[in-house]
Amino acid sequence: MAPITMAQALNTALRDALHDDDRVVVFGEDVGALGGVFRVTDGLTDKFGDERCFDTPLAEAGIVGFAVGMAMGGFRPVVEMQFDAFAYPAFEQIVSHVAKLRNRTRGRLSLPLVIRIPYAGGIGGVEHHCDSSEAYYAHTPGLKVVTPATVADAYSLLREAIEDPDPVVFLEPKKLYWSKSDVDTPLRTEPFGRAVVRRAGRDATVVAYGPAVPVALAAAEAAAGEGWDLEVVDLRTIVPFDDETVTASVRRTGRCVVIQEAPGFAGVGAEVAARVQERCFHSLHAPVLRVSGFDVPYPPPMLEHHHLPGVDRVLDALDRLQRDDEPDPRFLALGGAA
Amino acid sequence: MAQLLPATQPVRFLTETGTPVADRPAYPEPDQDLLLSAYRKMVVGRRFDTQATALTKQGRLAVYPSSHGQEACQVGAVLALDSGDWLFPTYRESVALVSRGIDPVEVLSLLRGDAHCGYDPGEHHVAPQCTPLATQTLHAAGLAYAERRKGSGRIALAFIGDGATSEGDFHEALNFAAVFRAPVVFLVQNNHYAISVPLSRQSAAPSLAHKGIGYGVPAEQVDGNDPMAVLAVLSAAAAHARAGNGPFLVEAHTYRIDAHTNADDASRYRSTAEVDQWRQRDPIARLEAYLRGRGALTDTVVAEVAAEAEEYAAALRTRMNADPPLTPTDLFDHVYAEPTPQLREQRAGLLEELVEAR
Ligand SMILES: Cc1ncc(C[n+]2csc(CCOP(=O)(O)OP(=O)(O)O)c2C)c(N)n1
Ligand SMILES: [Mg+2]
Hints:
Chain B: InterPro entries: Alpha-ketoacid_DH_E1_comp, DH_E1, PdhA/BkdA, THDP-binding. Chain B: Residues 40-313 form the Dehydrogenase E1 component domain. Chain B: Its cofactor is thiamine diphosphate. The structure holds two protein chains of two kinds. Chain A has twelve helices and 14 strands. In chain A, helix 10 (268-280) links the parallel strand 13 and strand 14. The model of chain A has no long low-confidence stretch (mean pLDDT 96). Chain A is α/β, with parallel strands linked by helices. In chain A, helix 3 packs parallel to helix 4 (91-98) and helix 9 (243-253) packs across helix 10 (268-280). Chain A is globular, with a radius of gyration of 20 Å. Chain B has two domains: 32-325, Thiamin diphosphate (ThDP)-binding fold, Pyr/PP domains (Rossmann fold); 327-358. Helix content of chain B is 46%, strand content 9%. In chain B, helix 1 packs antiparallel against helix 10, helix 1 packs parallel to helix 11 (299-320) and helix 6 (135-150) packs parallel to helix 7. Chain B is globular and about 75 Å long. Chain A binds chain B through residues 51, 56-57, 59, 61-62, 64-75, 89, 92-93, 96-97, 100-110, 141-142, 144, 164-166, 193, 239-241, 243-244, and chain B through 115-117, 120-122, 127-128, 132, 135, 137-147, 149-150, 156, 168-169, 172-173, 175-176, 179-180, 330, 333-337, 340-342. The structure holds thiamine diphosphate (TPP) and magnesium ion (MG). Thiamine diphosphate binds at residues 92, 131-133, 161-164, 191, 193-195, 260 of chain B.
C-alpha cells in the first residue's frame, strides 16, 4: 500500500462517487481539463466525460444557484469554489437557498449538494486565498459543515457528504492537501456528527478541527516532554456537533483548550468553549481557553506565521491551565479586578 | 439561430380598446379557447388579488404584494407552459400560482405567516415563491438544464421584475442558461417600478430585453397588458426552449396598479395621472372587448365568470377566516432530514415550555 495525499484521497472519493451514482455531477472553475487548481478533480472529465465533470462560467453565485436547480431536478451536484474568499459571491445563494430549501418547503424539497471549499492558510498564499470561513457556514442552520484533518477522513467524509440528503459545506484545509498517509480506499471512518479522539490523554483536552488538528497533535507531543498528557479531539464535523465526545473527554481531563486558525472573536472555538463550560462546569479545574488566529484580516504571507496558532501558543495556554483559583493575569486590569 | 437583438417595439396584437392592431405581428394568433381560458383565469385571478388585499386589512395576511394590472403576464405565463413545466415565481406571482391550480390558501401561507411555503413544489412543479431578488433565476436555469439532461422535455420559466434585472444573479442566470443551453424562459415583468425606484434608475439600456444579447440569449419585448400578445410570445419562447434552442428572454411592459404592497404608499413616488393612464390599458377589459367583438364572449359568459370569481373569493374568505393549525415543533423538524442532537434537545425544551404554559 503506497501512501496517498489528501488531495488524492479527495480525488478518489469523487471518482468513486461518480462511478457509483449517475446523479453525481462535479462542476466549478477549472475543474475540467486542468483538474482544479489543487488537482482534486484531476482526470475526472477524462474518465467520466464533460457531462459529469465540467467547467462553468466564472461566477460563484451562478455555480451554486445552478447547483440548487440541478439538485431540485434530481442530480447530486458537487461544486468547487476555487478558494475560501472566492465563495463569498455565492454567500447569498448558500444562506438564503441552499441552507433553507428543505425548511422552507417543510421537507418537500431537499438539496443533496456539496460545496467544496479549499480553506484556511499556512501555504504562503497572497491576499484573499487563506480565509478560515467556517464560522459563517456553521452559524447558518440547515448547512452541515465538515472539515477533514486526515487523509482517511478526507475520503470518507466526502463520500458521506455526497450521499447525504442535505447540503454540505465541505471545507478542505489547503495546507493538508499534500499530507500523506497509507490509506486503502474505499474506506469508511466514523460518520458525520462524531468527533474522534486522535490521541488519548489524561491531563487536558485539546479540541481542534481541520488545519488545527496537526498543530494540536504536535503540541501534545511537545507537552508530553513537559509531563503533560494531552487528549486531542478532532471535531471532523463542526455541524452536526458532537457534544458527547467533547463533553466526555473534558469531564475526564478537567481542562480544555480549543484551537482554531480563524480569528477568535465569535468563532467556532467560542462556541466550543461555551458548550464545554455549560456541560462540564463542575469538572473543570481551569477556564476553557482558546488559541486562535488574531482578530485581523488574514496577513500577508511573510507575516502569517505570527498569526497562525502554533505549538508554542498551545503550550502557553497549557501553562495557564495549571493555575487553580488565581485569576488569569492577562485579564486583571479589566473590570477593576485588581 | 433566432435573432438576438429584440425588435425595438413590443409585440402587440390588440390596441388598448381591444381592436386588432393594423400591423399583425408575425406570431401565430393564440386560439380562441386559449383566450377564453385566459379571460376566465384573469378575472378569477384579479378577484383573488382584491380579496387578498382585503385580507390584509382584516389582519389575516401580514402583507400582500398585488399584481393588479399584471394579469396578462401572470396568467399568460401559466397558459403558455405545460402543467409539467416548472415555474420559479417571486412574491409578486400569487395570481400565477392560483392560475396554475394551487389551492389559494396554500398560496397565501407565506403571507399569512403559518409557513414559508404552503404548497408542495414537487406536486405543482412550482418552486417556493422567492423573495431574495433574482436568486431564483439561477435555480430555474439549473433545473431546466437538469431536465434537458434527463430528456424529460420539460422546461422552466423564471419570473423576475424590472428592478431585479439589476441584480447580478439575473446576469449569471442568463449566462449559465445560454452556455449550457438550458430550456428556460426568463419573463421580466417590467411594471416600471422597484418599490419606489423608477425604471430609469435601473438601467440605461434601450430595453430590458436588450440584456439578452450580451449573453447570446434571444429576446423579445411584448405589450404585457395585451393578453393575446403575451400568450403568443411566451408560447413561442417556450417552444424555442423546448426544441433545444436554449433560453429565451421576454420583457413584458406592464404596470402595477396598486402600491408595491398594502404597506406601501405609492403616492410618494408616482402620480395618479400616471396610474389612470395605465388603467386605460387594462388587460382584462382589453381581452373582453376583443372577444366580445368576435362574438366569442357573451353577457351570459361574462356574468358566469364574474359569479365564479365571486364564489372563489367567498370560499377563500371563509377559509382564511379560520385560524391555521400550527405545529410549533415544525420549527425543528425540517432543518435537516435527521435533526441534530442539538435540535432534538431544543425541540424537547420547547415542548416542555408548552406543557408548562398550559
Ligand atoms: C436581494 C434583495 N434586495 C432587496 C429586496 C427588497 N425588495 C423587495 S421587492 C423590491 C423591489 C423589486 O422590484 P422589481 O424587481 O421591479 O419587482 P416588483 O416588486 O416590481 O414586482 C425590493 C427592493 C429583496 N427582496 N431582495
Ligand atoms: Mg417592478
